[in-house]
Amino acid sequence: MTSIDDIKARIDIVDLASEAGVKLRRSGRTQTGFCPFHSNTRTPAFVIWPETGTWRCFGECNDGGDIFKFVMKKEGIDFKEALQRLAERAGVQLEDLHPQTPEQKEENQRLRNLLEEAATFYRHALLNTPGGAPALEYLLKKRNLAAQTIENFGLGYAPAGWDAVLTHFTARSKPSGPKYSEQELMDVGLLAERDSGGYYDKFRNRIMIPIRDENGRMTGFGGRILDPNDIPKFMNSPQTVLFDKGRLLYGLDRARKPIRAADQVVIVEGYLDVIAVHQAGYENVVSPMGTALTEDQLKLLKKFTRKIVLALDPDTAGQKAVLRGLEAARVSMDHEEELRFDAHGLLRHEARLQADLRVANMPDGLDPDEIVARDPQEWASLIAAAKPVVEHVLDTISAGQDLNDPKVKSEIAARIIPLIEDLPDPVERDSYRQMLARRLKVDERTLSGAVSPAAPVKRLPNKASQAQAEKKSSQTLPAARGGRIVETSCLALLLRRPDLLPHLDRRLQESGLAAISGTDFEYTDHQLILRLIQQSLEQDETEQAHYVEAHLDESLRDTYSSLLAERASRGADDRLLDELIRQVLQIRQQTLSEGVNQLRFMIDDAQQAGQMQATNYLQQMVQYGRMLNHLDEARRKLIEYRRR
User: Fold this and answer.
1) Using omega within 30 degrees of 0 as the cis cutoff, is the peptide bond preceding 426 cis?
2) Domain 102-242: what homologous superfamily?
3) Residue 106: how many CB atoms within 10 A of its CB?
4) pLDDT for 504-542, tens place per residue?
5) pTM of the full predicted structure?
6) 125 near 158, Cβ under 8 Å?
7) Is 1.10.3470 the CATH classification of the domain at 482-643?
8) Helices 79-90 and 67-75 meet at what angle, rounded to 10?
């Protein structure tokens, strides 16, 4: 991981644009608004893709990029200064970050392969062994899961013995299968170490639930007991290089698209709750790893939606988990900073939560899986009726209380007023103060007096204080993105073989296409490194690879090292050149396809609003369509060229 990747994982392009004065409106998977880089426009041609962290202006600018390009263009600064500013904001120490070595990448992939094989082993034990029969019956009959659902989620069974996994993976009955060391089995959390020496299976006689990250990669397991006398009821993999329960959300790999489609995520407590609700057709559901929500988990969800519903179990522990989760949410979601004086004349910052947090009450003491088993439509109704956080907390802490007791009124007000003050909308704040006053039967002015009198509010930029708070959170790996992967492969090959660049440009131009340029890359660090490669070919004093390294800005060192660590493509020059051409065409086609999709949204919106801009959008889409056809024609010519 590079420092650039880490900064992108922590900073949202939507925030940067909003702080720059862009008023954004959600449109499908994107956010649209008026471009901040040029004036005299009536068309909201500025588009943000939150999931990839990129933006583009389809108007006068005809430009785009990532968060670094946005800051560079907005502030008129170079990449190094933009990197330093955004690193400070994100709380990233640039000098402390280093990319993974090829050896580390290879080792991590081997451990993921081991976990995949373990999932297959557990699944076989569930479906094909006498010991797994009770577990299968429990899932089918008591949890009402269909056989296809069990298969889809890869559920399995850990045999009751103490060495089933240990024996299977270290000895192997099949000579063709790879062997793993005891240390590797320990490294992924499948074994535990005896006090007296030696190892034993960590998971025994449990239903096994594979846990994957948001990109579908194996990270570990959750195990549920079958014997009610066993403890604990649920057991997760221990902390490993792959498994960090504070940064994972169960089911997010399957829920990503449904969350975007619904523009809402529902959080439940149990893994089997997630599976049951997905089976019922509600797939925008995830679960934390058996603990209260963490900052990293909420930041991960923020990439897909800002509408979060907590649908936790109705028991006391579940209600406490709701209240614990609130503080994490208040800290981790986006904030605007305000500078105010409290009653003691001291300066303090107040954060205004930038998210829609709601809580759904589970009726009749039922868990989510029991509700969808009783009536799937009831689940939809409960989620639709979810209450805002303030209202839920008020209901929870006032239930069973004597609201005529002045001390009780004071205690409730002391807990609710800080939440009300966190709301970003002044109308909402006033509404909740009125609601609280009615509930407590007190004068609303009394509640206003309970909050420290405020001096006039002065907006502050969201920089150092947010960065300081986020320094406490661990680094978060960004989601793998298709565009980034292709860009990385293309640039890594050009770094190793810069001599292929003139041949690439000539072949592109012979096909009627423009030579490769920085505009082909969405990521600013990639644009700058490509420019260095081009400059290395314009001089003849130094070997090209040495020139690039000698002129590389320190701010790009991590990206450069990461590119060189990529697996090298091998083969004859013609094959490598074909690969480069394919990658460039793929990058351009993806950019144009995203543009066409966005223009469709903009046309629909404009037509529904009766706006004249729809005609301009249609003309742009026709132009994009012609460019896509041109790419297809160029691809056919290149294929014919190779066949000669």
Assistant:
1) no
2) DNA primase, catalytic core, N-terminal domain (3.90.980.10)
3) 12
4) 988 888 888 888 988 888 788 888 899 899 988 888 777
5) 0.58
6) yes
7) no
8) 120
